[in-house]
Amino acid sequence: MGRCGRGSITLRCVAMAGIGATACNQIFALVDVNNFYVSCERVFNPALENKPVVVLSNNDGCAVARSNQVKALGIKMGTPWFKFKDLAKEHNIIVLSSNYTLYGDMSDRVMTILRGYSPNVEIYSIDESFLSLNGMSSLWPAAVDMGQSIRYRVRKWTGLPVCVGIGPSKTLAKLANHLAKTRPEMEGVCDLVSMPQAELDAYLSTTEVGEVWGVGRRIGAHLDAAGIKTAKALRDAPPSWLRAKFGVVMERTGNELRGASCLALEEITAPRKQIVSSRSFGQLVHTLAVLSESVTSYMTSAAEKLRRQRSVCEAVQVFIATNPFREQDAQYSNSITVPLPNPSCDTRLLVRAALFGLKKIYRPGLAYKKAGVMLTGIGDAGVIQRSLLVQHGVGEKSEKLMEAMDALNRRFGRNTVAIASAGTNRAWRMRRECMSPCYTTSWNDVPIVHADH
DNA sequence: TCTGGGGTCCTAGGACCC
DNA sequence: TCTGGGGTCCTAGGACCC
Question: Does residue A31 sit in the same domain as residue A152?
Answer without folding.
Answer: yes
